[in-house]
Amino acid sequence: MKKTSTFILLLALVALILYFIFPNITDVVTNPSAREIYEREFTLGNTQFVQWKNAAENAKKDSLEITLPFVESGQFKTSRNEVYSFNFEAKEGEIIFAEVTSPIDSATIFIGVFKYTNDSLPKLKKIIDNPPSQ
C-alpha cells in the first residue's frame, strides 16, 4: 500500500512539474481550437477581449439567411471586430466547404460551425471550429 501511494504521489509531482514547464501540454489531450488559443492572449476583463467576445455573440443573434452554394467577397477593416454569421440548411452527412482568404498575413480569422438545437429553447451548439494555424 505504501509503495502504491508513493508511486501515485511521485507521478502527480512529475505531472505538476511538466505542467509548469509546458503549460500548454494539455493541448495534446484537449485539442483546443484556434479561437481558444487566441483567447489565452488576453487577460480577464481586457476591453479588446470583451469587445471581441461580444461581437461574436451578437453575430450569432443576427445571421444572414443564405442558400448553398454561396460566395461572398469583401474587405475586412482590421480596426474593427467584424463577425459574419450565416444560416443555411444542410443535411446530415453533407460536406460543407468554407474558405476565407486574406491578403494580410497577420489577420486572424476564425470559422465556427454551429447547429440549432431545440431542447426547450432554441440554442446553438458548436459542431466544429477551425484548428490552430488554419
Protein traits:
two-stranded antiparallel sheet, extended, 2 domains, 34% helix, alpha+beta, 14% strand, single chain, 134 residues
End-to-end span in angstroms? Answer: 49 Å
Class by SSE composition: alpha+beta
How are the strands of the largest sheet arranged? 1-2
Average predicted confidence as pLDDT: 76
- Give the biggest sheet: 2 strands, parallel
Helix segment count?
4
**Beta-strand residue fraction:** 5-15%
Helix content: 25-40%
Which H/E pattern describes the elements?
Answer: HHHHEEEE
DSSP summary, beta strand count: 4
Q: Radius of gyration, Cα only, in angstroms?
A: 20 Å
List unreliable stretches of 5+ residues.
none
- The tally of structural domains comes to 2
Topology:
Blueprint: H1 2-21, H2 27-30, H3 34-39, H4 47-61, E1 64-65, E2 86-87, E3 112-118, E4 122-129
Parallel strand pairs: 1-2
Antiparallel strand pairs: 3-4
Describe the protein in words:
The radius of gyration is 20 Å and the shape is extended. With 134 residues, the protein is α+β, with helices and mostly antiparallel strands. It has helices spanning 2-21, 27-30, 34-39, 47-61; strands spanning 64-65, 86-87, 112-118, 122-129. The N and C termini lie far apart (49 Å). It folds into 2 domains: 1-30; 32-129, no CATH class. The mean pLDDT is 76.
Short description:
Helices cover 34% and strands 14% of the residues. The protein contains four helices and four strands, in the order ααααββββ. The model has no long low-confidence stretch (mean pLDDT 76).
